[in-house]
Amino acid sequence: THMNSCNFLVHSASGSAKQSDVEILEAKLESLIFEVSTLKKKHRNDIKQVSAKHEADLKEIKIKHDQEVRQLREQIAFLGIYTNLPPTFLQTLEQLTLNPAVIVALEIPNFTRKLNEAICSNSYGAIESDPFYTSHGYRMKISVYLNEGPCGYTGYMGVYFYLMQSDYDDSLKWPFDKPVTFIVVDQQNDESQIESFEECVIPNGEKALNKPSVESNEGLGFGQFMLHSALGTRQYVRNHTVYIAVAIEP
């Protein structure tokens, strides 16, 4: 009986020791899990702070760049370098590129293929420019619908401009009231033969001209801008590429 009691005490002591070890390990594991969780939160916060600072720095650089570009354009216009240039529809692509009142907003490569694909699939074949700034500080983009067939304008290409939100909006005049001219550039080698195709939007108080309250206003332009059949009458398409410029009055 005494021997059995001793065995029981030994087993009990051994069991207690094992239980204690398990509890210590569990506590240590919980501590490690907590440390990992805390470290993850710290990393997430660090990443957010770095990202926010990076975005702020990029935004500041972009604003500074845009201001410098605007100032240069204004100086060029003030100096009157382009007062002797012909009207925009007679200007070469190079002249349009240098003209401070003109933005060559879209270069459309593989134009013929894209137009044919849009017609065959009865889709718009929409192409959108990157956002750009006018010399006045307005931010906008343009969209070209290669095929306006789906909305009933069979055989036509459409073009629209969209006013977009920017950091300068509070200092600009609203509603937007500048005539906007869309130009399909004639890429003739002989400058004396150049005759680009252009149409002008005359602002008339449309809602799309108000100060943007969202990222982009609705578009304003022409659903029947240019006949597909007119594209082959001059060098509007050269090396399968079309250039569409936007001229905005000072």
Automatic annotation (TrEMBL):
One Pfam short name: TRAF-mep_MATH
Cross-referenced InterPro entries: MATH/TRAF_dom, TRAF-like, TRAF1-6_MATH_dom
Cell wall biogenesis/degradation recorded as keyword: no
Domain of life: Eukaryota
Segment forming the signal sequence: none
Gene3D superfamilies the UniProt entry points to: Apoptosis, Tumor Necrosis Factor Receptor Associated Protein 2, Chain A
Keywords: Receptor
SUPFAM superfamilies reported in the protein's UniProt record: TRAF domain-like
Example of a GO biological process term: regulation of canonical NF-kappaB signal transduction
Protein name: TNF receptor-associated factor 4-like isoform X2
Organism of origin: Paramuricea clavata
